[in-house]
Write a structure and sequence with these properties.
The chain is α/β, with parallel strands linked by helices. The chain contains seven helices and six strands, in the order H-E-E-E-H-E-H-H-E-H-H-H-E. Helix content is 34%, strand content 20%. The two termini are 26 Å apart.
Length: 203
């Protein structure tokens, strides 16, 4: 938030479950992603959710809330751990756990910090596209050098995905959708990125 203010944005509202800011800001609101946001309809131009959506179960209602508060053609930027990366897919194959959620959660001490609902790119796209948004950009925060090792399994992942997407596209008449998802799934950002960052527009 401080970066936005430093770059000249006049009105920046921060919402979090508790105030952990290290500087004074009059427009901080205490809020819960699982409940109605304390903002009026069609009042925001941009909404940003940084590594938050994986911490809640009812992600559909949260996205609907963002849709409600955004103006027409408003921008929704969302980031979340990239479970569609080759590294994360390999880890899930080996352990049943995705990267950044690589061991059982401590059920004796539940906390909002737990990653209770990790999302793949196709799941995020479905969530956004069925609730009034259209994705414009998919990128990542960084690609670690170590992640390039997993390019060794890329030919097998590519061929198996191509087969499945083509087969289901014919059966379900979703060839266009499958082709779009396929292209994004095999982009450098999704294959190797640590965090997936998505810019979507309110339709």
């Amino acid at each position: 938030m401080k970066r936005l203010l430093d770059h000249g944005y006049n009105k920046v509202i921060a919402i979090d479950i508790e105030n952990i800011l290290e500087f004074d800001h009059a427009d901080f609101l205490t809020g819960d992603m699982t409940k109605r946001l304390t903002l009026n309809d069609n009042t925001c131009e941009v909404a940003v959710c940084i590594d938050g959506i994986e911490h809640i179960y009812n992600q559909v209602e949260f996205v609907k809330e963002i849709f409600r508060v955004l103006k027409s053609k408003g921008v929704f930027i969302i980031s979340t751990p990239n479970t569609s990366s080759l590294r994360s897919r390999w880890k899930f194959l080996m352990t049943g756990h995705h990267h950044k959620c690589d061991s059982p959660l401590d059920e004796n001490n539940p906390t909002p910090l737990h990653h209770v609902r990790m999302l793949s790119f196709p799941e995020i796209r479905y969530l956004l596209h069925t609730n009034g948004f259209r994705i414009e950009i998919v990128t990542t925060n960084r690609i670690k050098i170590f992640s390039w090792i997993y390019a060794l399994i890329l030919p097998f992942v590519f061929l198996s995905s191509l087969y499945v997407y083509n087969r289901t596209g014919k059966k379900q008449n979703t060839r266009r959708i499958n082709a779009e998802v396929f292209r994004t799934m095999f982009s450098k950002a999704v294959l190797f990125g640590e965090t997936i960052i998505i810019k979507a527009i309110k339709c």
